[in-house]
Write a structure and sequence with these properties.
The chain is α/β, with parallel strands linked by helices and about 375 residues long. It has 4 domains: about 10-85, no CATH class; about 90-100 and about 295-378, ACT domain (Alpha-Beta Plaits, 2-Layer Sandwich); about 105-190 and about 280-285, Periplasmic binding protein-like II (D-Maltodextrin-Binding Protein, domain 2, 3-Layer(aba) Sandwich); about 195-270, Periplasmic binding protein-like II (D-Maltodextrin-Binding Protein, domain 2, 3-Layer(aba) Sandwich), CATH 3.40.190.10. Helix content is about 45%, strand content about 25%. It has helices spanning about 5-35, 40-55, 60-85, 90-95, 120-130, 140-150, 170-175, 210-215, 220-225, 235-245, 255-260, 310-320, 355-365, and strands spanning about 110-115, 130-135, 155-160, 165, 180-190, 190-195, 205-210, 230, 250-255, 265-270, 280-285, 295-305, 325-330, 340-345, 370-375. Strands 1, 2, 3, 4, 5 and 11 form a 6-stranded mixed β-sheet that branches. The chain has a 5-stranded mixed β-sheet with strand order 8-7-9-6-10. Strand 3 and strand 4 (about 165) form a beta hairpin. Helix 3 packs across helix 12 (about 310-320). The termini are far apart.
Amino acid sequence: MELDEIRSRIDELDRGLLPLVLKRMELSAAALESGALSPAEIKQRERELLKWAGEQQAGEMEPYIHRFYTQLFELGRAYRETHSPLGGKVKSVIEKALCGKNEVFPQGGTVAVQGVEGANSQMAADSLFPRGNLIFFKSFEAVFDAVESGLCRFGVLPIENSSNGSVRANYELLNRKNVSIVRSTRLCIRHELLAKPGASLENIKEIRSHEQALGQCSEFLKSLGGKVSIVPCANTAMAAEIAARSEFSDIAAIASHPACELYGLVPIAKNIQNSDNNYTRFICISKDCEIYPGADRISLILACKHRPGALYEILAKLTALEINLIKLESCPIVGHDFEFMFFFEMQGSVRDPRVAAMLESLEQTCESFKFLGNYSES
């Protein structure tokens, strides 16, 4: 058979498939609207069809046929859910949170930040809120508590670094606390080794910084040959403050250049981070969910059934709607052996009815579901 004839026959088959697929999706939606079949019965019918298809093609084509029908089911499910929304808590949360098309993200407000002046979180907060009133707290959890209690309208926290990964403590707090993400931003991080005037790298015996900063500068620290004591502390700017107040000149801190100026220190080594492409993402949280025009990122925390294919079924919903998954991270569920919850971050807007219907479906089908927000990143 010549190539032109092969292509002609493929085109004929493709054109024949289209009306069949469309008709199937319409009938699938009609069956759901009739209420004749429960979701469990629909699932059982799908299993029976997959079994039949496998028996028809038991050879090397069987996995391809299985995937074809599975994807067909997911497309039908996505179409049904868009036209027959399930409702639930997330729907009411979204409706209440949507801001008008002319509303813009605030430029000011009372903002909770972990650390002290000169911290990277302070710089991120200043970037998000040029007219913000910053209040500093000792711990990440205290920032969450300040927002949850209403003491501060917003809180700014680091969530992940391009070189050293996620700030797991803040992901866990997002799951535990009753707050929402309303904005995020990226900050390019440049680390310096700061010490008192007159100090030299050869004389340093102790280096302090936040564990994330220490991880981001691990290659520099390794080059010191283990001759220096490494001490984690709550914040990079706090480390600079400790070095400045110490009566000894052999204590240094890894921090930003603004901290150097604030605490009267001098850099004895510059740009000591592992990578020049070193960015930290910061999230802005609020007690109430607020969704501003232009929001194009959605964050969720999900736990699915502990069985084969459960996570795939969630991912298949995103694939069917062509939603781009930006981040997927697992975290063990305390008290459950080898069971996990998942942090999802994806591109999308809840103003899109298909996306809103997908969220309603996840809320109904997942073991646990938490909508963290729909926001934009600067």
